[in-house]
Amino acid sequence: MTKQPVADAPSRIGHPGNGRKYRPGRIRERNREKILQAAEQEFAQHGYKGATIQNIAERAGLPKSNVLYYFSNKKRMYSAMFDDILARWNKVFTDIRPEDDPAVALSTFIRTKVEMSRRYPLASRLFAMEIIQGAPFLLDHLRTNMREWVRGRAEVMQQWINDGRMAPVDPVQLIFLIWSSTQHYADFQVQILMVENKAEYEKRDFDHAADFLVEVILRGCGLEKPT
Amino acid sequence: MTKQPVADAPSRIGHPGNGRKYRPGRIRERNREKILQAAEQEFAQHGYKGATIQNIAERAGLPKSNVLYYFSNKKRMYSAMFDDILARWNKVFTDIRPEDDPAVALSTFIRTKVEMSRRYPLASRLFAMEIIQGAPFLLDHLRTNMREWVRGRAEVMQQWINDGRMAPVDPVQLIFLIWSSTQHYADFQVQILMVENKAEYEKRDFDHAADFLVEVILRGCGLEKPT
DNA sequence: TCACTTGTTGTCCATTTGTTCAGGAGTCCG
DNA sequence: CGGACTCCTGAACAAATGGACAACAAGTGA
């Protein structure tokens, strides 16, 4: 009789003595990571339906069966990825507060998002794909967490507006504007590269983009670029 | 011997007397349209690899074989769609000239693009998908037509800047900003609806968005909203 | 070493996929 | 009507796909 595989439980390193005799291996952790990275590429390029386990396995340099040992099926693999990505996302974005300086806060927000586009373009594309496809997996997340997130920020911005500290623009639309314009550098990378006739992005391209966005959007909100 | 099908030739209605005895039917035209529309939905939702001919056929209410009679294979179907879309695209966007008023021109551009997002959300998503996937079919178009298009507009904007008629911002980045922020309303529809807790878009939502974008972006470029 | 868990993989399978094809139905004009 | 052309479609097929499984290898703590 074969043992039931541990079935894509969330990573649990340094979590001994939970009734288990052996700590679930470092091997597990390493391979899980390899596979998730491969999956990120494959899913970002082909979407959920278009991605194949075979391809992911090849990218990860493992046999298909082994991939299926770690993630018992395609669906779980896909959502495991988003767990990873959303966790990363949550870690980076700090809160804003009414007493913050609007110019500084917005500028930080924009720069952080551009930096995310630079460092994790695949995650960005993946997210974009998921949304375009109708967000079958993330609908709930959008409806709850993300809605709350936006509401919180928008409230603070509204406060700033009421206090006359920035121009009266719709805060929710402003968030969309920042999201879209910053993500664009990850999602539409190919288009931008072609139009600008470049082979690759460099750090300074992102800095330039961030400078541009900060300048235009802040001025658009009646703010001065912070020093 | 069966006749070779006319093999997805471009529509040719009202084009008689080219050696053919019968004008290539109106049936052809009607079904072609039905199929292309179904394909637009399917490809926009699942990407190139994820879309299936079977699904397209079902959406169009035709047997698979019939779909393949009109478009001999998946690839041709896919590019036929883009021919359609790019043609539509080209028809709508008028040129800008140095003697135009920057505020009016930019404002028109933004509003036109928002209107496109409203009227042809599927086309927008399709395009986004194609780019995210690395633009395997559109690379050439991006490299040539689109590059030229951007260069032309950017030059005019630079002229405006040189003449002191708008703030000195990078024109190419400005175009990207307008593209991304306007497309967002089509591509990320689901996200926006969820965050705003709505079931559907209405015309006035787009108007609101367009007003917001015109206001912020124009001000960001040191321009006054045109009356 | 032993007993047991975790990790690995080749093989198999039902289903789906893109595509071909042959034959037939429908349409149109003289 | 007849014949030329257009349109339609069920059947067939090789390749690919998601997944199940059983046998085996490697690791681990006692």
Descriptive tags:
homodimer; about 230 residues; mainly alpha; Arc Repressor Mutant, subunit A; Tetracycline Repressor, domain 2; about 0% strand; disordered N terminus; DNA-binding
Overview of the structural elements:
- 2 copies of one chain form a homodimer.
- With 227 residues, chain A is an all-alpha fold.
- The first copy, chain A, folds into 2 domains: 26-80, Orthogonal Bundle (Arc Repressor Mutant, subunit A); 93-220, Tetracycline Repressor, domain 2 (Orthogonal Bundle).
- Chain A has helices at residues 26-50, 53-60, 64-70, 74-92, 102-119, 121-132, 139-162, 171-187, 189-195, 203-220.
- At the A-B interface, helix 1, helix 6, helix 7, helix 8 and helix 9 of A face helix 1, helix 6, helix 7, helix 8 and helix 9 of B.
- Chain A binds a DNA duplex (30 and 30 nucleotides) through helix 1 and helix 3.
Topology:
2 copies of one chain form a homodimer.
Chain A: H1 26-50, H2 53-60, H3 64-70, H4 74-92, H5 102-119, H6 121-132, H7 139-162, H8 171-187, H9 189-195, H10 203-220
Helix pairs in contact in A: 1-2, 1-4, 1-6, 2-3, 5-8, 5-10, 6-8, 8-10
The structure holds a DNA duplex (30 and 30 nucleotides).
Briefly, what is this?
2 copies of one chain form a homodimer. With 227 residues, chain A is mostly helical. In chain A, 68% of the residues lie in helices and 0% in strands.
